[in-house]
Every structure is written in structure tokens, then in C-alpha cells.
């Protein structure tokens, strides 16, 4: 249901995520056994759009259990820092980093609210600030987020965001063919569904969560207002999971609508850079 922003939104969301960390860490969805053995957690389009990270510093905001963060380290980033507001998530990420043999200088994880990142992370700026894949919907204010994220981009560096397309939140859950919700709504969305995307049948107690839908125009405008130059905005016809029952798993692991029905964007990605002069 839609509602005005509840006063307990931050505490509710943190309890929600804290409880799901051990479920995710043992789930087939994250498949940490394969990850430990070398499986890459990053998507092909992210690798292509971010490019070579060799020798660069990378900050991952809202990193959850750190598999994407550590994948960037595996791809050659000189230093990766992951930040998440969930202490259990950060502890899980730290344990993974140790198991993979990364020193704290190569892969560090910090428990802090994303809006406090500038005060919480080890350095004042990074070559790449990376975020997304189900992150922005947990934040009420894109401008505040963009100001924080942009402040951590080093001169000559860039922010890269890969995220689920807000259009998908407007469509009916059963088929993904009918518009049922307001694309421009600024209201909080309160959900109390048990389980988790990594295990729909998992028994859970802290089921109350609060989310927001952010039109792409708001995200792009917030980044531009924060002083970054938009290099590209790409929309993708694929999702990481079966957002609608009609989506079909493809050979590349993504989910898409059947070939006989019109496509809509299911994900999007943005690269936004800071001038080398720091201006």
C-alpha cells in the first residue's frame, strides 16, 4: 500500500535487511560456494560500461554482503571499499574478503548509513563510485543521495549506477502488461511480505519495509545538480530475476519478456563523471 513516510522507516528497513543477511548468505541465489570458487557476481553490461578498473579505487555504496564489491577487486581494482547500513551484512562481507585472501588495504567494509558515507569511509574520494541493483528504492530523497555520492567522486572519476527500472513498479504483478500504479508518485511504499527475493519461502519475522519509487528523470537531474556530467543513460530490456511471471530466463541468465510481446525497459544504467579539474 501507499502511505506517507513512516517515522520508523530507517529502523524498519535495517531490521528487515539484518534478518535476511544469513538467509542470503546460504541461498542458491547468491551461491557463495561458487563465488568463493571464482564465479563473477557482476553483470556483463556493467563490466563493459564501467571498463577496466585495474589500479583504481572503487567505493560501493549499499554493498549488502559484498559479492559485487569483491568482484571488482578480482577484476583488478587496487582498493575497494563497501559500505552498508547492516552490521551483519558488513560482517559477512569482511569474512568473505578474508576467505578470498584480500587484505583490508585491498578490500575494506564499513557499517554506516549511506548518507554518512563521506564521514565513514577511509578516503575522501574514489576513482569510481559504484551503486545500484536494488539500492535507490530504499532511500527517500534522490537529491540527498546524489550529493553524498557525487562528493566522493574524485576529479577525473565517475559514478556508475545500475538499477531496476521504475517503470516495472507501475505494472501489475500478475502479467506486467497493465499500468496500475503512478509512475510519478512520491509516497512511501510500505510492504509486509514475508520471505526474500533470494528465498521466497524463508520464514522471517521482520517483514515491514519501506521503499520509494524514483523516476529516472529525478535520478539524472539529481546527479547533474550535484555537479556530475551525465555520460550516458542506458535502458535494458532484461532483469536479474522474474519480476513478472511472464518473464523468461534466457541463455545469458537474464529474464526477458517473450519474443512475441512488446518490450519495456526492465533495468537502466548511468555513468556520470566529475571533471579532472574537480570543477
UniProtKB/TrEMBL annotation:
InterPro entries: Methyltransf_25 (IPR041698), SAM-dependent_MTases_sf (IPR029063). It holds the Pfam family Methyltransf_25. GO terms for biological process: methylation. CDD domains: AdoMet_MTases. Residues 59-157 form the Methyltransferase domain. It is an enzyme of class 2 (transferase). It comes from the Bacteria. Keywords: Methyltransferase, Transferase. Its EC number is 2.1.1.222, 2.1.1.64. The keyword Amino-acid biosynthesis does not apply. This is Class I SAM-dependent methyltransferase. It comes from Streptomyces pulveraceus. The lineage of its organism: Bacteria, Bacillati, Actinomycetota, Actinomycetes, Kitasatosporales.
Amino acid at each position: 500500500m501507499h502511505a506517507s513516510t513512516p517515522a520508523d522507516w530507517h529502523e524498519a528497513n535495517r531490521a528487515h535487511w539484518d534478518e535476511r543477511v544469513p538467509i542470503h548468505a546460504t541461498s542458491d541465489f547468491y551461491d557463495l560456494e561458487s563465488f568463493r570458487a571464482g564465479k563473477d557476481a557482476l553483470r556483463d553490461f556493467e563490466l563493459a560500461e564501467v571498463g577496466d578498473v585495474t589500479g583504481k579505487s572503487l567505493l560501493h555504496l549499499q554493498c549488502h554482503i559484498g559479492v559485487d564489491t569483491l568482484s571488482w577487486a578480482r577484476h583488478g581494482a587496487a582498493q575497494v571499499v563497501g559500505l552498508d547500513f547492516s552490521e551483519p551484512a558488513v560482517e559477512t562481507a569482511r569474512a568473505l574478503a578474508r576467505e578470498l585472501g584480500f587484505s583490508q588495504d585491498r578490500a575494506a567494509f564499513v557499517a554506516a548509513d549511506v548518507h554518512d558515507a563521506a564521514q565513514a569511509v577511509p578516503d575522501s574520494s574514489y576513482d569510481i563510485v559504484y551503486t545500484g541493483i536494488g539500492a535507490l528504492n530504499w532511500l527517500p530523497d534522490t537529491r540527498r543521495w546524489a550529493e553524498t555520492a557525487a562528493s566522493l567522486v574524485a576529479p577525473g572519476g565517475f559514478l556508475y549506477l545500475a538499477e531496476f527500472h521504475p517503470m516495472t513498479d507501475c505494472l501489475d504483478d500478475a502479467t506486467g502488461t497493465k499500468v496500475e500504479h503512478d509512475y510519478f508518485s512520491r509516497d512511501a511504499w510500505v510492504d509486509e511480505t514475508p520471505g526474500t527475493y533470494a528465498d521466497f519461502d524463508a520464514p522471517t519475522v521482520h517483514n515491514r519495509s519501506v521503499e520509494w519509487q524514483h523516476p529516472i528523470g529525478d535520478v539524472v537531474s539529481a546527479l547533474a545538480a550535484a555537479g556530475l556530467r551525465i555520460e550516458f543513460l542506458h535502458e535494458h530490456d532484461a532483469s536479474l530475476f522474474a519480476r513478472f511471471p511472464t518473464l523468461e530466463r534466457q541463455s545469458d541468465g537474464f529474464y526477458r519478456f517473450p519474443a512475441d510481446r512488446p518490450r519495456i525497459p526492465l533495468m537502466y544504467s548511468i555513468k556520470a563523471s566529475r571533471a579532472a579539474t574537480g570543477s
